[in-house]
Amino acid sequence: MPPVFPMLTVLSMFYYMCLRRRARTTTRGEMNSRRAIESNTRALPINVEIVQYAKEVLDFSSHYGSENSMSYTMWNLAGIPNVYPSSGDFTQTAVFRTYGTWWDRCPSARLPFKRTPSNFCSQDYVELAFEEPVYPTAVHILETYHPGAVVRILACSANPYSQNPPAEVRWEILWSEAPTKVNGPQARQFTPCIKQINFPTNLIRLEVNSSLLDYYTELDAVVLHGVKERPVLSLKTSMIDMNDIDEDEDEEKYGCGMDTLNKQFSIVTLREWPTNGYFDKLPYELIQLILSHLTVPDLCRLAQTCKLLYQHCCDPLQYIHLSLQPYWARINDTSLEYLQSRCTLIQWLNLSWTGNRGAISVSGFSRFLKVCGSELVRLELSCGHFLNETCLEVITETCPNLQELNLSSCDKIPPQAFNHIAKVGRLRRLILYRTKVEQTALLSILNFCSELQHLSLGSCVMIEDYDLIASTMGAKCKKLRSLDLWRCKNITESGIAELASGCQLLEELDLGWCPTLQSSTGCFTNLARKLPNLQKLFLTANRSVCDTDIEELAANCTRLRQLDILGTRMVSPASLRKLLESCKDLSLLDVSFCSQIDNRVVLELNANFPNVFIKKSFTQ
């Protein structure tokens, strides 16, 4: 008589492994229990599901709106829906700063970092706090215009409203997927199938990639469903994903705990092998070239195989360009300490999004730069909320060769700290988008950093006199090629005239949402005549742009590739035809909310100029 419980076959073992992957939130004891495997019912007691909208927006990387209003800002994600289920372009929604690939095809575009893992494609993020910590059962994202940008949803173990911060902050990916093209701009409720986690959360992070979108994505609200008690999965809760079979790979590749990466960095024990295989026969340079295609975690894993590959994987030449942004949730002081010996020759370093909630300290960052900063040429620190005046002082003292500095959305840096940047005389690129830089510090930077070629001052609301800033740029920054003055509130035709006269190499100029500029003063005509090299010009929401301005651009700026005149009421189809006929390289023309340009005109222009993306937005 056969035994009641036969030994596991290969098929049943495969089934068992799949169950373990799907029920990862339960303890090992629960999962090893035959009762937990064989039961087809949920564990009691049954939890009442809690449904809640975001209470507060805690952090974000960018937004289309102003720092002093609610229109098109991330703050609109807090609370109940304002727009949904309506579709269209509405000011009451949350909108990120960019869309499509246009920003990667302009003079200010930065070269990408190599070794970025294929599963990391996030461009922007927003973090939302909810009232009650719960074990998530569902996340609903209400998208009202051009949906499809969300690529990752994460949950955090830290309670933003707790008086006692945890010793370790843990992030867990609830859902992740590559960017996909959604047919049509209509509103939708996006509810991906999320993974269960083993801790309650009231902090949710959305990461987006808008590269496949035809226009700005607009989000209205986020709804978190969850239960107060930790649920146990039944066999009937969800289908098993074949990709979940490799438990070790999944934990290392997608887990967000800091311990995993730090253990890889710190590995020193190596297996003893009699030889290094065929690698002994390869030239050192060839092995280095092969390894240059590996991501940082893969390098750390490979270093554990043999002494020869350990030597190669720890060679500072492998870390000339290093982006730690994809691992933002796992980077802390210990990570930087482990990397110090490998990064003595580093030239490009990306620490964007890292170090928040105490993960990186001022002392840890300073120690790393004092060892590794001497050769740095490019330093990306976007959304680094740990940065303070000491950090900027250390950067200027330890990075004498620095040419590119990105402090985008580092809104915790105090205004006086920016004075230190003036000491970096070789700077060619400086991004200060959404920072608290003040006029005195900026004037000092412009006077001492005459090599500047790319400067972003978008949404810098603490600058009092942009005319003075523009005049100083015209006098001191003759090599300027791109300038972002997005939502600059007080620049006038006087400042524009000084800028155009002194910075005639300008190829890119963003004057979007600058309400003090009026076409009747001749400022746009002057720009077109003085700046023949313009490739990108954004005059977004300037309702005074007229046919004369467009015709001057057609006559003088024949290299123009991108033009945004959203919201103007005074541009006719005839002037646009002249522009399109003259500017053969034009690829983007935004005429949204231009009252004289209706859908019929857009269809006609698209038919006659098929190589130009002509955007016409709408509101229902």
From TrEMBL:
GO cellular component, one term: SCF ubiquitin ligase complex
Source superkingdom: Eukaryota
GO annotation (BP), single: SCF-dependent proteasomal ubiquitin-dependent protein catabolic process
Residue span(s) of domain F-box: 276-331
InterPro entries for this protein: F-box-like_dom_sf (IPR036047), F-box_dom (IPR001810), FBXL15_LRR (IPR057207), Leu-rich_rpt_Cys-con_subtyp (IPR006553), LRR_dom_sf (IPR032675)
SMART domains per record: FBOX, LRR_CC
Pfam families found in the cross-reference section: DUF7885 (PF25372), F-box-like (PF12937)
Keywords: Leucine-rich repeat, Ubl conjugation pathway
Record's protein name: FBXL4 protein
Gene: Fbxl4
